[in-house]
Design a protein that fits this description.
heterodimer, A: Rossmann fold, six-stranded mixed beta sheet, three-stranded antiparallel beta sheet, 6 helices, 30% strand, B: 264 residues, 2 domains, 10 helices, globular
Amino acid sequence: MSIVFENVLKMYNGTVVLQNVNLTLKNGVFTLRGASGAGKTTFLRLIADLEKPDAGTVCRDGAVVSYAFQEPRLFPQLTVSENILAVSPEQPDGEILAALGLSRASGKYPHELSGGMKKRAGLARALSVDADIYLLDEPTSGQDPAHAELILAAILRYTAGKLTLIATHDETFRRALHGKTIDIEGTSVVLNDND
Amino acid sequence: MKTSITYSNKRFLDRFLRTGAALLFWGCVWAAAAYFVDKEVLLPTPFAVGRVMVSLFAETSFWFSIFGSLVRVLIGYIAGCAVGIILAAFCFRFRLINTMFSPVLSVIRAVPVASFIILALVWIGRDRVPSFSAFLMVLPIVTGNILTGLRSVDRELWEVAKLYRFDFLKKFRLLYIPAALPHFTSAARTSLGMAWKAGIAAEVLCSLSFSIGGYIYESKVYLETPALFAWTITVILISMLIEGLLFRLSVFRIDSHEKTEVAE
């Protein structure tokens, strides 16, 4: 599975966010590095087809994409378990919830969860999908070190062998992933193979 | 548990006493005004109205009239809700239908109910006018509110549905119903009282037999002011009763979940 960016330009209200993006990403873990507002989320949203480029193309050959958004985006009227079943009906949810320390939260509604639990529930939902590409936006934000470790282990386990892109500010977490780094600086996107 | 029951009983008793005191106050104001006016045809005393009400309760025609009026208004109300839901869905889905029906709904909202009643009297015959009037009261409110609800679907959840390629039924269940339901509930609540008043007004103008409005019309014609008051109080009591009963149904309750954060 691969994602190919060709001469991609993305603007918001006339301001260029990303330009001249030419990149080919194949299976493996890629972490996105850049300051807040640099365009990491925009980059992920272009891959997920939630944004259209203003010029150029993003090709992902009909791959199934799963996305853990920066905000959990859980359906408020569904329990954690039902939120997972809503996107992957054939997948048993117990194992993934246990992996993220959410066993006791499976029957709870999002409003009954803390911010950190909601975030992990959103991640559990994304990882439960048998996808070709996983997009994870700041998966460890708002988590204590113990839960960040659980998240790391779950990501490595459930995305093994798949193309995974992770936007993160957490340097420790980024290093522990042992992936390649994509730097987003100014409006340019550079794949850093040596990191 | 014991504490909460006691607290709940206390609140109920408190509310009951306050409402009772307010009713007693206005009853006294009414009695005093009737005493000073001293003309039953202009303003009867609460006791005269009470006497008429007691005598009405004993008459079979009273209960038949209430039943008849209720059926007529509820037919219009239910039809208005049903058509309103369907029309809102079509207006949301097809821009052309929205463009076509927007002015119609605005006209229905703006035209006085009496004009519609008189026109309907000419068009469809007097038996159907109360239901038609109730229908016209409900339709624009339900359609407008549901449309607002459908347009307020959470953009972030909509993206989740798009990403995971939800089919129409799943989108309907997880996005559109939760967005539209609170707006529908509010519309159903607001329009029920309006439908009831419009239905009774139509019965008055059509002077239908075996109807509350028909009896109100008769009371006016024969200057039976105590009976007019008694029927009006009956209309108010039934309106409160229907609202109370209908909104005990869970579908009309907007449960606001307490946003309690749980410690990990």
